[in-house]
Amino acid sequence: MRLRVVTSPTWGKQTVRVNCIRLAMAAAVVGWVGWGSTARADWASCQSKPTRSCLLDEALRSGDGQLTGKERLDVMVLTGYRNHPEYLAPADIEEAKQQVMDRQASSPALPWQYFSLATTGLVAADRIQEAYDLMSELDARWVNSALDEVIRALIKAGKPDEIPVFGRPVLADPRHVFNTAVKTLADQGNIEQALVLTALHPTGLPDEDTLTWLGVAYAKRGDGKTAARFYARAQANIEGKKVYSVTDDTAIELRFKQIVLQAVRGDIDGVRTALKELPAVSGRSDRAEMNRNVGYQQLVGFLLSLENPAVALEIAKSGPEPYRTLSLMTVALWDGEHGRSDETRAILPLLGDNVDPKIRGTLQRALAIAAAKSGDIKSAAALASETNDSVRRRAIMFELAQSLPP
């Protein structure tokens, strides 16, 4: 393109300036169109032959290069970053810490997802004291949950000696610390380490939940006899507490603990009967209903832990409406992680026509992961690309990348 210069003494310079601006704009448009075409071509190529590299590129790049700051964090918090701390760079950790501190004033719940991400990165980087220090930035109601997150991260990273019972100041009720550590170790199959902590328990008497987790750990190891002994001890604990149970919330809590024991022992008919005998949902937001919700989640979780998804789905479907959706999604996510595409897809109509878009997006993630786990990565990428929420779509792409070799 040639630049035409008009030599009028009154407006020649203005014409040159306007033409230059038009040239610059044309170049920018051509460049943008060219970049867009390249990006679409790259993504089209990735969809036809997905690789770990191109999926990660789709997940963590923007038009200006690599995602950074909060934009990157908001993708990462929707992924299984706890299993992939290597993606949390020092800049990500610092940004997450800053988000915990900056967002505290608006709502106590908002910083939680950033705290969890920061904790994973700090523990992986062996900056453990910083993780404990960051707890002080959270609302007091979140302290126990925050400590649970740190304990789980330490155990996952193979650093149980850093749990605040061995020479570190105890940051919460020591019984809570021990119970969380024992349950986490047992759930990961580290029974011997769990038993060491049980022997050091400050009261000398682990609670019924801890005993049940230990029993399940032995059952998963194939040692049914030892599992039965732990279940019997847990049952004795529950019976002892029932004598002093005088409130509705305690009564329903203990009832669900018994139902869980029936489930892990294989008495599914007993579970069905016991659930039908529960008092009707009150409709109030009180402790009794909170305990009912927790009870359903624990029951479904234990059944899935013992790889009994059919009964877990049955229980989830039969649950009262306030808790049904969450239970169904728990099963869907388990199915997805185990490559059960048909089972995951079958849950969608159970959620109803007016399901929350965020829940639908979570199910879409489960479907994509199920397809990837079953070896159909092309279908998985196609499912992910259909997700309307760009942040969730990026998070799914990240998860799909992890199912492929480097």
Structural account:
The protein has 406 residues and is mainly alpha-helical. The chain is built from 20 helices and two strands. It has helices spanning 12-48, 52-60, 69-76, 90-102, 112-124, 128-134, 143-156, 174-187, 191-199, 208-221, 224-242, 248-264, 268-276, 287-305, 309-318, 321-337, 341-347, 357-373, 377-385, 390-402, and strands at residues 61-62, 65-66. Strands 1-2 form a two-stranded antiparallel ribbon. A hairpin with a 2-residue loop joins strand 1 (61-62) and strand 2 (65-66). Helix 4 runs antiparallel to helix 5 (112-124).
Helix-strand pattern, N to C? HHEEHHHHHHHHHHHHHHHHHH
Low-confidence stretches: 1-41
Number of distinct helices: 20
Give me the side-by-side strand order of the main sheet: 1-2
**Distance between termini?**
46 Å
What is the general shape? globular
**Which secondary-structure class do the elements indicate?**
mainly alpha
Radius of gyration, Cα only, in angstroms? 27 Å
Strand count, sense and barrel status of the largest sheet are: 2 strands, antiparallel
Task: Count the E strands.
Answer: 2
The share of residues in extended strands comes to under 5%
Helical content class: 55-70%
pLDDT average, as an integer? 85
